[in-house]
Amino acid sequence: MWDALGMIMIADVELRDPPVFRYRLHGSIVARNFDQDMTGKTIQGYRSTFLADVVQRDYAETLHEGIALAYRVQIASGEKTAQYERCVLPIAEDGRSIDALLIVARVRGI
Q: Which domain holds residue 64?
């Protein structure tokens, strides 16, 4: 059960066009699976531009819809493949304007 804590991320939302998502917390299991800790960095900091584009699209969709959304993603690079499920939940400190996202991701296959 405690492993689940390493799958949790929190991203602050900067309302721009396009929106900017900066990780306040990047789970240790997710960081280890992607060999990159994103704490304090924006999505554009990912080494993989494909991953950055997919994450940006999914987080922006959650921001736009204003509801929790779930995704199943498969990534292939050369002979390596990874699949992960991600649930993205909007957080609004004032109850109206989304200012953060709570993300839980389960990665397999890296």
A: 2-108
